[in-house]
Specification:
This protein is mainly α. Helices cover about 75% and strands about 0% of the residues. Strands 1-2 form a two-stranded antiparallel sheet. A hairpin with a 2-residue loop joins β1 and β2. The protein is globular.
Length: about 475
């Protein structure tokens, strides 16, 4: 026992004498020796040192100075292509689903002697919710996911994790959290499951709690749409796409920043401990496989995500119509909540419609914007359809959404804070359930759910007060 204690005491002392980078130094030495051995047993006819395309590319993509700027540039290009390419097809889909199919569906139900409330629930609630989800979400997802999948298949996403490894270790978290963070950009529930690669329970818990700060696929359409309306519209048309993409990139980077800040806070307080080290072996670059990429992105991602959004949107649409048409004391339930919450929401730079929309849209982030649009119209603030008239506005062009939001009282401050609150709010119901399954803890599930909401309210409040102080 004395010998064991002596060994542990010596190891503990040497741990601080050698320094925290001993693991990286050892791994670097191993790879250096492996490269040296390989160079001695292989030769080239011209006698020059062997160099591969991957090694040359890595000198830039994983470079200390070029790695992050190139990452930001790539994100900006992806978002710009998404923004520029989504507007026209979104308007075309809406013109068919909303302008043509919706009136036909109402007329059909009326001809079948359907009660007005059933027609309202089915046509103006369930159907229009699904129609807006499809028209708003399908075009940007059909562009964004193939581009994102190409970067993933090419081997670039592991390079992103490699670049962020040192930042996570400085934050007191595990370097593998960078991998679960990038997985969270596709789906937060998948990102939470991906934290299984982290061996340390403490560091895995940090990664689970902070994964919601990665913008999941359900929040990309919200970010892109709001950015195009309130930032792209501030500049000439030829610059709108660039400004919109830049705004979305900034929000995504803020998500990474909040992940690091909260990870540091947790690792130095209630989850205090020293970060573990790990080795990240970068996979080789692979040539693009276009057919497989299209299948993976359009079938496995776009269609599945869209179907999930439609499944959640259908009952949400019915709830929206009901709360906007059931009267209590002469006013609708939606109006009661909106009027009650508007003063509080104003302090946050938001409005009551937005707060109610986020409550209704807890099942899935994908239905936030359609919910906002339906509540904006059905709350009787625009057209008075809260009385049960049932006909909403027509999305005959991409600017129709912008017109509805502006008439509904939205300003630049509203747009900014909606983007921030979209980043900093509770996880969707699927992610919340996944967090509980992975942690087996009600306490940590509540922490992971409530912490982003509190941060979102605080950040929105601070931004609103600063904006009003400066702008007036």
């Amino acid at each position: 026992m004395d010998n064991k204690d002596s060994i542990l005491s010596t190891a503990h002392a040497l741990r601080y004498e050698i320094g925290e980078d001993i693991h990286d130094t050892l791994v670097g030495a191993i790879y250096h020796d492996a490269e040296l051995i390989a160079s001695r047993v292989t030769s080239r006819p011209d006698g020059k040192k062997a160099s591969t395309f991957g090694a040359t590319l890595d000198r830039f993509l994983t470079n200390r100075w070029f790695g992050f700027p190139l990452m930001f540039l790539l994100l900006a290009v992806v978002f710009w292509l998404t923004v520029e390419g989504a507007n026209v097809p979104s308007g075309m889909i809406a013109s068919v689903l909303v302008d043509m199919v919706h009136p036909w569906l109402r007329d059909t139900l009326t001809s079948l002697n359907s009660p007005w409330w059933l027609t309202g629930v089915l046509a103006d609630g369930v159907y229009l919710a699904m129609a807006w989800v499809i028209s708003v979400m399908l075009p940007p997802m059909a562009i964004f996911f193939p581009l994102f999948t190409l970067a993933e298949d090419f081997g670039y996403l592991p390079r992103v994790a490699f670049n962020m490894d040192s930042l996570f270790r400085k934050a007191g978290a595990h370097g593998k959290q960078a991998l679960s963070l990038t997985m969270g950009f596709g789906c937060n529930a998948a990102g939470v499951v991906a934290t299984r690669i982290i061996d340390s329970p403490r560091e895995r818990l940090i990664a689970i709690i902070t994964n919601n700060f990665s913008l999941c696929n359900g929040r990309w359409p919200t970010q892109i749409l709001i950015a195009s309306i309130f930032f792209g519209a501030l500049v000439p048309a030829h610059l709108a796409g660039i400004i919109t993409a830049g705004a979305v990139v900034i929000v995504a980077l803020l998500g990474i920043a909040f992940t690091l800040i909260v990870s540091w806070g947790l690792s130095h307080t209630i989850l205090k401990g020293q970060a573990s080290a790990f080795s990240l072996e970068l996979p080789p670059y692979r040539p693009p496989r276009l057919l497989q990429t299209l299948y993976t992105s359009l079938i496995d991602r776009t269609i599945i995500v869209l179907w999930r959004a439609i499944v959640f949107a259908a009952p949400a649409g019915a709830v929206i119509w009901l709360v906007s048409n059931i009267h209590v004391g002469g006013v609708t339930i939606a109006e009661l909540f909106i009027d009650w919450s508007d003063p509080f929401a104003f302090v946050l730079g938001l409005n009551g419609v937005i707060l109610l929309a986020y409550i209704i849209a807890i099942p899935a982030n994908e239905i936030v914007i359609p919910t906002v649009l339906m509540l904006t119209v059905l709350s009787a603030k625009l057209t008075g359809v809260g009385s049960g008239a049932g006909v909403m506005f027509e999305l005959d062009e991409a600017n129709a959404v912008a017109d509805v939001l502006r008439v509904g009282g939205w300003t630049v401050l509203t747009g900014v804070n909606v983007m921030l609150f979209s980043l900093l709010h509770n996880p969707c119901s699927t992610t919340i359930y996944t967090i509980y399954k992975e942690t087996k803890s009600v306490k940590w599930t509540i922490v992971a759910t409530v912490l982003p909401i509190v941060m979102g309210l605080v950040i929105c409040f601070a931004v609103a007060q600063a904006y009003r102080l400066v702008v007036g």
